[in-house]
Design goal:
The chain is mainly alpha-helical. It has helices at 8-23, 37-40, 54-71, 76-85, 102-108, 111-116, 170-176, 179-187, 211-234, and strands at 118-121, 161-162, 167-168, 198-201. Helix content is 43%, strand content 5%. The strands form two sheets. The protein has a two-stranded antiparallel ribbon. Strands 2-3 form a two-stranded antiparallel sheet.
Length: 235
C-alpha cells in the first residue's frame, strides 16, 4: 500500500467484511447496521468510533511518497521521475502523462492530498504561484483573497521581492493586492540567503508530513466534497 494504490472495490469489500463482523453478533441471523461505516470511521470527538477507512489510509501512504520526492529533489529516484514525467515544471504542477507507469500513476493520484494538507513558506519566491498556491496565513484557504489578478495569472511570488535587499517590494504589493492581502504579504519573513521556497505540512507542529494526519486530512476532504455534491444535487 506504500507505493501501489489498492483497487477501491477491494478496499470497500474488506470494509464491508469488517462492518459485518462488528454488527453480526449472531451468525445465524441477519444483522442490523445501526450506523454507517463512514460514521463509525469518524474520530471519537466527532461522534464516531475511530474505525479506519482503508481507502484514506492507502492514499495517505501514497502521499508520503509524494512528500519524499518533494523534500529530497536531488535523490536519484526524484531525478529519474522528474526527467521522465515533469521536466519543465514542479512535481505539484505535474500531469499524469500519456503513458505513465503503474507506480507513477498511483503516486500522482495523491498529489492533491499533499496540496490540501500543506502550505508554502516563502524563500526566494521562485516556486510559489501567487494567485493559485497556498502561502498566506489565512487558515480557511491560505490563498490570496484579491479577486482581480493584476499581474500574470501564473506570476511567481518572486516578482514581489526586491532581490538586492531581500525584502518585499511594498509599493508594488500594495498596487497589486487588496489592503488585507498586502498587509499579510508584507508581514511574512523572507529568506536572507535566497533559500528556496519550502513546503510545510500544516497538520504537524513541526511542519513535517506524517501518515496519521494525512489520513484525517483525506477523510475530512472527502466529507467536504460529499457535502458539496449533496448541496448541488438539492439545488
Amino acid at each position: 500500500m506504500n507505493v501501489f494504490k489498492s483497487p477501491t472495490s477491494l478496499l470497500r469489500e474488506i470494509e464491508a467484511m469488517l462492518s459485518q463482523f462488528w454488527w453480526n453478533h449472531n451468525n445465524s441471523a441477519k444483522s442490523i447496521h445501526w450506523r454507517s461505516w463512514e460514521r463509525l470511521g469518524k474520530m471519537k470527538d466527532k461522534g464516531g468510533l475511530g474505525f479506519g477507512s482503508l481507502t484514506s489510509f492507502n492514499r495517505a501512504l501514497l502521499a508520503k511518497q509524494v512528500w519524499r520526492l518533494l523534500q529530497d529533489p536531488s535523490s536519484l529516484v526524484s531525478q529519474v521521475v522528474k526527467h521522465k514525467y515533469f521536466q519543465n515544471c514542479e512535481l505539484l504542477e505535474s500531469k499524469i502523462g500519456s503513458s505513465p507507469s503503474h507506480i507513477w500513476r498511483r503516486i500522482w493520484s495523491s498529489i492533491d492530498l499533499v496540496k490540501v494538507g500543506s502550505v508554502w513558506r516563502v524563500g526566494n519566491g521562485e516556486i510559489i504561484k501567487m494567485w493559485h498556491d497556498r502561502w498566506l496565513p489565512i487558515p480557511s484557504t491560505y490563498k490570496v483573497l484579491t479577486l482581480v489578478p493584476v499581474l500574470d495569472t501564473n506570476a511567481r511570488v518572486a516578482a514581489l521581492i526586491n532581490e538586492e535587499k531581500y525584502e518585499w517590494n511594498t509599493e508594488l504589493t500594495k498596487e497589486v493586492f487588496s489592503a488585507e492581502d498586502a498587509q499579510l504579504i508584507c508581514s511574512l519573513l523572507i529568506s536572507q540567503r535566497g533559500a528556496k521556497d519550502n513546503l510545510i505540512w500544516v497538520k504537524s507542529s513541526k511542519g513535517m508530513f506524517n501518515v496519521k494526519s494525512a489520513y484525517f486530512v483525506d477523510l475530512e476532504n472527502k466529507r467536504q466534497n460529499q457535502g458539496q455534491s449533496s448541496n448541488e444535487s438539492v439545488e
